[in-house]
Every structure is written in C-alpha cells, then in structure tokens.
C-alpha cells in the first residue's frame, strides 16, 4: 500500500473513536480522527456512574480525559464530517469530508455512533444551530430569561426541561403522544416547576425565523399513535427563542450502504473482532450490530478495532501481529530508564 498519508483514519470522536485512536496511536500507527464533535453521546451525559473504575464522573470530564490520552499517544484530530469512502485502486481508501482535503489511508475505523433524530419539520434544517439544537443544553449559548421549547417525552427531554427551567422564563415541553414516558422521579420533579408547560399529543410541523428561530407551529396528533391528524384544523403557534430536540438517535449509515454490509436497522455488521464486510475497514461502538449500546462497551470495541487494524497492517507488511497493548508502556518505561541512566 506504499507510502500513504495515514495508517488509520478513525471516523467519529465518541468513546469508541477516542479509544480506537488512543490504541492505534499507541501501536505507532499514523492515526487521524475526524469527528463532528468531541465526545459524541457521552458528552450529553451529565453524570456517568457505570463506567468501571470510576465511582462517578461527568460525561464531559471523561471525554476530555479520553481525548487527552489519544492526543498524548500521537493521534491527530480534525473537526469535520466524513461524507464518503472510496476504495483506491492501488489499495487503501480515500475518506472525503464535507469541508477540507480528503484523507488517504490504509485502514479505516468506523466509530460514528448514533445521530440525533430530527423533527422533519418545515424550516428545521435552515435554522439548525440558529436557536435549534440537538445537543446537550449546556452546549447552547445563554438561555437565561428565554422562552424555550423542548421536544420529546423521554428521559432526555424531561431532563433537558428540568435543567433549563431555573434559568428560562418559560419552557414548553412538547410530546406527540398522550403521556410522557420518562421515569417517575423526573416526572415528579417536572410538577415542581411552574414555568414548564407540557403540550401533549402535539407535533412540531414548522419552525419559523430568518436569522434565528422565532416561532414553532404545532399540529394535533392521534394521542395513541403520535401521527399528525390528516386534517389539522387546530394549528397552534408558539413564540420561542430556542428549541432543544430530544427525540432519540438513529444509525446514520446511509452514505456507507455501498461500502460495508448493514443489517435491517442500518447498523454496520461486524465480526467479533470488529471487522466489517470490507477488508481494511473496521467498526466499533453504537453504530454496530452489537446488543449493548453503552459507553464502556463502545470503549472496549474501539480498543478491539484498533488492535485488529494493527494486526491487518502487520500481516500485510509480513510482520507479526501483537495482540496486547501493555508492552508499549514497558517499551516507554525502558526508553525512559535508558535516557535517565548516566
Ligand atoms: C443522554 C445520554 C445518557 C447516557 N448515559 C449513559 C450512561 O450513564 N452510561 C453508559 O454506559 N452509556 C450512556 N449513554 C450511552 C453512551 O453515551 C453511548 O453508548 C456511547 O457514547 C456510544 O459511543 P460511540 O463512540 O459508539 O458513539 P457516539 O457517542 O454516538 O459518538 C459518535 C461520534 O461520531 C461523530 N460523527 C457522527 N457522524 C459523523 C461523520 N459522518 N463524520 C465524522 N464524525 C461523525 C459524532 O459527532 C460523535 O462524536 C448515554 C447516552 C445518552 C444520549
């Protein structure tokens, strides 16, 4: 595969991608991460209690630590969106980006997780980032004294409404079904905030605004199915300063349909060693057809994908593959000792 720009390009900077980047870099691979954000879903997690070895930690703090480790070990970081993968004639792949020069690489690790669902409302895409947010409430600019809409009925939406209520003038919580499906303690807390108004069996069908969102149009739905009634005679308009869309996630793998095999849920099909149907492309984390979508699982899968990519490259170069990582630390320790000795 000659002298290619990178040994491995990791697409996605959530737990899977950050772990893969760290372990690939530790094996001495020229490693490039491309990601739309830092930390993925983990950065939306206010507090994580089930990450082994840590009693409890904010999602953002854990992400910062993982990023620092990946960079310490030599991985390069590029903030951006991968839009296509093409196999090169002489071997390896080209990863194209929405903006910027494509990366040419020997292997790829797909780790781009799950993407927040959008509303499908008229005007939504033009206003994304202009008062319309799909991220954690902490990521959005100042919300003090504002009128804010939160869309969704699960734990994420109710948690967002509760986080916003103390600083907002008013929070509209909009859900397309007849009942919120968040956990009981969250629903109980909701009732203690007078400035949260819940709108049930309503769907956002339009977002209005030019430079920034200023209003939303709600249509009534069938409360059982959540489907907009075919002749919505009762449209309502709410004046708002911002919207937080919290209606779940999907595997956004459509752009890879010709590159790797997907299952019916559009998840990337992987072997137990994180191989995809295309040799040289590996995958890890929530975007894969694995049963458990959890931070610790994604981290473990990311590590496996990196070691498997290393093995693939070693075998292609006719060299032995090493299937563990701790010898890197021992090599470093020996080098440090040698440097220190007179
Ligand atoms: C609110 C919330 C709370 C959670 N709480 C917990 C918890 O307490 N414990 C737990 O174990 N798990 C929890 N999870 C689940 C956990 O966060 C996920 O399982 C984990 O983040 C998945 O990691 P990942 O790296 O596979 O994908 P993601 O975290 O989804 O990261 C994907 C990354 O890829 C990037 N990306 C997407 N498309 C592209 C593209 N085309 N080009 C470049 N980059 C791209 C994204 O920007 C993102 O950085 C929670 C999730 C949420 C949403």
Helix percent band: 10-25%
Cα-atom radius of gyration: 23 Å
Low-confidence stretches: none
Count every helix, treating DSSP H or I runs of 4 or more residues as helices: 7
CATH architectural arrangement of the largest domain = 3-Layer(bba) Sandwich
Identify the CATH homologous superfamily of the largest domain: FAD/NAD(P)-binding domain
Give the strand tally: 17
Would you tell me which CATH topology of the largest domain applies? FAD/NAD(P)-binding domain
Strand content: 15-25%
Bound molecules: flavin-adenine dinucleotide
Q: Return the average pLDDT rounded to an integer.
A: 91
Per CATH, the class of the largest domain reads Alpha Beta
Overall 3D shape: elongated
Order of helices and strands: EHEHEEEEEHEEHEHEEEEEEEHH
Describe the structure concisely.
Helix content is 25%, strand content 24%.
Written overview of the protein:
The chain is α/β, with parallel strands linked by helices and 342 residues long. The protein has two domains: 6-115 and 249-340, FAD/NAD(P)-binding domain (3-Layer(bba) Sandwich), CATH 3.50.50; 124-245, FAD/NAD(P)-binding domain (3-Layer(bba) Sandwich), CATH 3.50.50.60. Helices cover 25% and strands 24% of the residues. It has helices spanning 15-26, 59-72, 124-127, 155-164, 184-190, 295-316, 326-340, and strands at 6-11, 31-35, 76-79, 82-87, 93-97, 103-110, 115-116, 132-133, 147-151, 170-174, 196-199, 202-209, 213-220, 236-239, 242-245, 249-250, 281-283. Strands 1, 2, 3, 4, 5, 6 and 17 form a seven-stranded mixed sheet that branches. A five-stranded parallel sheet has the order 8-15-9-10-11, with helices on one face. The protein has a three-stranded antiparallel sheet with strand order 12-13-14, with no helix packed on it. Strand 10 (170-174), helix 5 and strand 11 form a beta-alpha-beta unit. Helix 4 packs parallel to helix 5. It starts with 5 loop residues before the first strand and ends with a helix. The mean pLDDT is 91. Residues 11-17, 34-37, 40-42, 44-45, 48, 50, 81-82, 111-115, 156, 285-286, 293-296, 298 line the site of flavin-adenine dinucleotide (FAD). The site of flavin-adenine dinucleotide (FAD) has 33 residues, from helix 1, strand 2 and helix 6.
């Amino acid at each position: 595969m000659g002298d290619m720009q990178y040994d491995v390009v990791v697409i996605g900077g959530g737990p899977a991608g950050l772990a893969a980047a760290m372990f690939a870099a530790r094996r001495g691979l020229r490693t490039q991460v491309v990601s739309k954000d830092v930390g993925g879903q983990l950065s939306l997690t206010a507090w994580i209690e089930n990450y082994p070895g840590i009693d409890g930690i904010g999602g953002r703090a854990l992400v910062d630590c993982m990023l620092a480790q990946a960079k310490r070990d030599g991985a390069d970081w590029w903030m951006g969106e991968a839009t296509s993968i093409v196999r090169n004639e002489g071997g390896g792949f080209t990863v194209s980006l929405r903006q910027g020069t494509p990366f040419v690489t020997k292997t790829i690790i797909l780790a781009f997780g799950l993407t927040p669902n959008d509303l499908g409302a008229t005007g939504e895409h033009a206003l994304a980032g202009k008062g319309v947010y799909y991220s954690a409430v902490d990521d959005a600019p100042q919300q003090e004294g504002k009128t804010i809409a939160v869309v969704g009925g699960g734990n994420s939406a109710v948690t967002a409404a509760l986080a916003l209520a103390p600083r907002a003038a008013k929070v509209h919580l909009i859900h397309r079904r007849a009942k919120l499906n968040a956990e009981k303690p969250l629903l109980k807390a909701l009732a203690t905030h007078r400035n949260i108004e819940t709108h049930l069996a309503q769907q956002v069908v339009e977002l209005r605004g030019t430079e920034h969102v200023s209003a939303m149009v709600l249509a009534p739905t069938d409360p059982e199915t959540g489907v907009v009634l075919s002749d919505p005679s009762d449209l309502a308009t709410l004046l708002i300063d911002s919207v937080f869309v919290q209606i779940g996630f999907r595997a956004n793998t459509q752009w890879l349909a010709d590159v790797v095999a997907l299952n019916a849920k559009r998840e990337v099909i992987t072997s137990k060693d994180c191989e995809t149907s295309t040799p040289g492309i590996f995958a890890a984390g929530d975007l894969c057809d694995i049963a458990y979508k959890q931070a610790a699982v994604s981290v473990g899968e990311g590590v496996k994908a990196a070691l498997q990519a290393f093995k693939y490259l070693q075998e292609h170069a006719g060299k032995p593959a090493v299937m563990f990582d701790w010898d890197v630390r021992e090599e470093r320790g020996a080098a440090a000792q040698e440097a220190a000795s007179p």
